[in-house]
Write a structure and sequence with these properties.
Layout: H1 3-8, H2 20-37, H3 45-52, H4 56-68, E1 72-74, E2 80-82, H5 85-90, H6 93-112, E3 115-122, E4 125-132, E5 148-150, H7 154-165, E6 174-177, E7 184-190, E8 199-206, H8 214-229
Antiparallel strand pairs: 1-2, 3-4, 3-8, 4-5, 6-7, 7-8
Helix pairs in contact: 3-4, 6-8
Length: 230
């Protein structure tokens, strides 16, 4: 950028104004990250060029910049994928997601009289990031934020897997019994339509079976949380 261009981009108070060129570059970089986040197999420079509608030279420059910040990596075959630097940014996401989900979780816990939770995918595991216990019950399941388990065990993880199997349809809710704790039942429904967030909302209770009304109520809570995150 020349000195003349810089001068043209300053207001009378000397405050810099973001140029259209800078904004366009940032926009393209963010679009690259979103495209890579939506694929499990990565994308080539040619594929990114076609999806972005720009030439390959522009894509090479975008990828080089993103690689410097570890936000993108390229494998031996030249396919670009999301880099580990995104994980550092992602650590700050959980508190924001938790805060947005708490009102719906409180309502769910009080309504059902069971411990409500928001669970997100963390690698190959399900991670409870927010937990709300009911205030009026004599006893309930103690469930803590930070609890992890495999995705194929427990209602929370299985609800997430059900959404993966049926991405174009609402998969409903999942019920389990005794998979994570003896004598405890679980009901969970996946979060749907939230870009970049894969998870579920559910309850866990001490019972022989889950009451009939719990499943639909959990689905309603999952919709409320999804709406709060959009």
């Amino acid at each position: 950028m020349t000195a003349a261009t810089v001068a043209a981009d300053l207001t009378n108070e000397g405050v810099g104004v973001v140029t259209a060129e800078t904004s366009q570059t940032l926009d393209r970089g963010l679009r690259v990250l979103k495209l890579l986040a939506d694929t499990d197999h990565g994308l080539t420079v040619t594929e990114l060029s076609l999806k972005l509608g720009v030439n390959r030279t522009v894509v090479y420059r975008l990828l080089a910049t993103l690689e410097q910040h570890a936000l993108v990596r390229r494998d031996l075959g030249g396919r670009a994928r999301v880099g580990l630097g995104v994980l550092r940014l992602g650590r700050q996401v959980h508190p924001l997601v938790r805060e947005a989900a708490l009102p719906a979780l409180r309502s769910l816990a009080e309504d059902i009289g069971a411990t409500a939770h928001l669970t997100l995918v963390d690698g190959a595991e399900a991670l409870a990031v927010a937990v709300v216990e009911p205030t009026w019950t004599d006893y309930h399941v103690a469930y803590r934020a930070g609890f992890r388990h495999s995705l194929d065990r427990g209602a929370a993880g299985k609800a997430i897997l059900s959404a993966r199997r049926t991405p174009l349809a609402e998969p409903g809710y999942t019920l389990t019994h005794g998979e994570l704790e003896a004598g405890a039942c679980g009901a969970a429904a996946p979060l749907l339509g939230v870009t970049g967030v894969e998870g579920s909302v559910g309850v866990v209770m001490l019972a022989d079976s889950v009451p009939e009304r719990v499943g639909p109520r959990v689905m309603d809570a999952a919709r409320e949380v999804a709406e709060a995150l959009r």
